[in-house]
């Protein structure tokens, strides 16, 4: 991650741990009601637990034909669902979150979609249960 971005991420995380709060997505007007049923697609793929391992995450997306050699969206109008568990066990959680955010934008631009779900590890972290978190 470039030094400037790394510094920003460190500051953002430190602010969060020190009690700073951000507007919710609804307060910021980012999202409205999310659909609970989506239209059928010609190609649907699923990616499992990533657990903070950016290298394996990149390989999984490439193996499924979702990304190209430059880690850019290569699946056209296909839909991919990442089933959560991005957090814990590895040291690259934030990098994976930024990677997924970029892929979501690229997928939308290509007429496809990347849906990222919350898994049990995200839920445990929100509840303050960090027993699987690495000290990284």
UniProtKB/TrEMBL annotation:
<dbReference type="Pfam" id="PF00149">
    <property type="entry name" value="Metallophos"/>
</dbReference>
<protein>
    <submittedName>
        <fullName>Metallophos domain-containing protein</fullName>
    </submittedName>
</protein>
<dbReference type="GO" id="GO:0016787">
    <property type="term" value="F:hydrolase activity"/>
</dbReference>
<feature type="domain" description="Calcineurin-like phosphoesterase">
    <location>
        <begin position="43"/>
        <end position="125"/>
    </location>
</feature>
<dbReference type="InterPro" id="IPR029052">
    <property type="entry name" value="Metallo-depent_PP-like"/>
</dbReference>
<dbReference type="InterPro" id="IPR006186">
    <property type="entry name" value="Ser/Thr-sp_prot-phosphatase"/>
</dbReference>
<dbReference type="InterPro" id="IPR004843">
    <property type="entry name" value="Calcineurin-like_PHP"/>
</dbReference>
């Amino acid at each position: 991650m470039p030094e400037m971005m790394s510094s920003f991420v460190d500051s953002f995380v430190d602010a969060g741990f020190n009690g700073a709060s951000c507007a919710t997505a609804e307060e910021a007007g980012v999202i409205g009601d999310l659909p609970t049923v989506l239209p059928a697609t010609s190609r649907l793929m699923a990616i499992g637990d990533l657990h903070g391992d950016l290298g394996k995450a990149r390989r999984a997306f490439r193996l499924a034909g979702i990304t190209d050699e430059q880690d850019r969206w290569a699946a056209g109008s296909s839909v991919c669902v990442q089933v959560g568990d991005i957090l814990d066990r590895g040291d690259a959680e934030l990098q994976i979150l930024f990677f997924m955010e970029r892929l979501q934008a690229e997928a939308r631009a290509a007429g496809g979609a990347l849906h990222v779900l919350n898994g049990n590890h995200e839920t445990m972290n929100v509840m303050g249960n960090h027993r699987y978190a690495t000290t990284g």
